[in-house]
Amino acid sequence: MPPTIMTSLWHGAYSRGRNPFALCYYSHYPSLGVSEERRQKACEYLSRFGATREEQTRNYYLWAQTVPKALWRYFSHLPLSYFADVVVADMMPPLAAAQLLVRLDLYPHFRGANVVDLFSGVCGWLMAFMYLPSHYAPKRWVAVDIDPRRLQICKLIANDVGVDVVTIRRDLSTPYVQRSDVVVGSPPCHEFSRAKTSPRRVDAGLALVKSYLESVKAINPIVAVMEEATTTKESQKLVTQLVEQYGFTYGFYELREYGAIQYNRRRLIAWRVKTGERKEKT
């Protein structure tokens, strides 16, 4: 099957016999065994996401990532060939982020806070505050990432989220230090994927995680939260050992249980709260 369909199978949590793109646009593949009735239903379903296949693909991914619909317009300028890597691969699903902040009782610390977002991507952590009461929104959000196109998205969504956003383009292979109340981050997970895992790539992935942890150590915020994929037993063991060394608590969470649509969304969430710093809820 075409690569675009294979990626949508994974990102959409569908088997190939249920994937709407496969059923609508590739029904002629004998292996799918698609009837005309099923094809028409799939095409009707996709029409909710746009008039063209490109619109449907882009908006379907955004929906699967639980990006608030009001923000979809900011992604329309991105080339589709680049879109999946930018939006899907490294992004923390906003709805899952919001629910986990509530589950872990961390959300009160963000109220009126200055937040540094390391490896920010398109600011999935910031979008989470569109799913939380507005009075818990941070005051200022500093998005740090190496990709200017991702940072542009962060700037565009600032008004919708209602938070002052500052973007900084920077290679985070070395620690970043700026005074802040809260630090969040999602170090790139490609190096830990089953398809790419090798000792060299695992070491590269661990170096980025360590850069995040060293940044937290230097900044010493009231609270820090990190999300990371650990799809192999080796990477899981190494990352958990590392976060423990830096005084983080951690757990593994199926993000599908918190609103994410994707199939493979088991994530390590690690957090650290400065002793004696517990904000009261209002």
Radius of gyration of CA atoms, rounded to a whole number: 19 Å
By secondary-structure content and strand pairing, the structural class works out as: alpha/beta
Mean residue pLDDT: 85
Strand runs, count: 7
The CATH homology group name of the largest domain: Vaccinia Virus protein VP39
Q: What oligomeric arrangement do these chains adopt?
A: single chain
Helix content class: 25-40%
Run of helices and strands: HHHHHHEHEHEEHEHEE
Count of structural domains: 2
The percentage of residues in β strands lies in 5-15%
CATH T-level topology of the largest domain? Rossmann fold
Rounded to the nearest angstrom, the distance between the terminal CA atoms is 52 Å
What is the CATH first-level class name of the largest domain?
A: Alpha Beta
Assigned CATH architecture of the largest domain: 3-Layer(aba) Sandwich
Give the structure's gist in a few sentences:
The protein folds into two domains: 3-66, no CATH class; 94-273, Rossmann fold, CATH 3.40.50. It has ten helices and seven strands.
Molecular structure report:
The chain has 282 residues and is an alpha/beta fold. The protein folds into two domains: 3-66, no CATH class; 94-273, 3-Layer(aba) Sandwich (Rossmann fold), CATH 3.40.50.150. Helices cover 39% and strands 15% of the residues. It contains ten helices and seven strands. The chain has helices spanning 3-11, 20-25, 36-46, 53-64, 80-89, 94-103, 124-127, 148-161, 199-219, 233-245; strands at residues 114-118, 140-145, 164-169, 182-185, 223-228, 249-254, 266-273. Strands 3-2-1-4-5-7-6 form a seven-stranded mixed β-sheet, with helices on both faces. β4 (182-185), α9 and β5 (223-228) form a beta-alpha-beta unit. α4 packs parallel to α5 and α9 (199-219) packs parallel to α10 (233-245). The protein is globular, with a radius of gyration of 19 Å. The termini are far apart. The relative contact order is 0.12. Mean pLDDT is 85; it is low at 5-14 and 192-197.
